[in-house]
Each structure stands twice: as structure tokens, then as C-alpha cells.
Amino acid sequence: MITAIVMIDAEVDHIPEVADAVASIKSVKRVYSVTGDVDLIAIVAVPQHEDLATVIPDQIAKVPGVKELQTYLAFQEFSRADLEAAFDIGLD
């Protein structure tokens, strides 16, 4: 699975609507409203690199109220929760 982190700058008056619309896109796994230089961060997961073109410029960028995007591709995922779950044998 290919993961992209999409930083979204939205029109201030439309941030909740933009977040809802982006979250409804099939390949978008999560949308966070955040502090800082951007308004929203979306986590996108697709099977192939080519699929990013149909999700990011063709869908997310065209949501009314989206002003600008920055996209970062993930190379590797690190998660303490995933590591702990992998080694959990169910004993308390």
C-alpha cells in the first residue's frame, strides 16, 4: 500500500466542509484539523503510485474550498502500537 500525507490549505470559512468532503473520498483514511501552516492533514492510502493521481489532483484538489496542497509520500511506517500488537501473546 502506498501512503501519502496531504497538507491542505483551505478557505477559513469552509474548513469543516472541506474536511468532511475530503474524508468522504474512498482512499482517504483520516483527516485531521491541525494548528500550524496548514489547516488539514489527510492520510491517503492507495494500492499503486498511479492511483495517487486520481485521488490527490483529481479529487482532493477539486474539493470546493481547497486553496493549496502539499503532498508527502511515506517511505516506511513506524508504529509502536503495531510492534506491541505483533508481540502480544494475550497474557495480562
TrEMBL record:
Locate the coiled-coil region(s) and give their ranges. none
List, alphabetically, the InterPro entries matched. Dimeric_a/b-barrel (IPR011008), Tscrpt_reg_AsnC/Lrp_C (IPR019887)
The record, for SUPFAM superfamilies, names: Dimeric alpha+beta barrel (SSF54909)
Chain ranges of the Transcription regulator AsnC/Lrp ligand binding domain: 6-76
Q: Which N-terminal stretch is annotated as signal sequence?
A: none
Per its record, how is this protein called by name? AsnC family
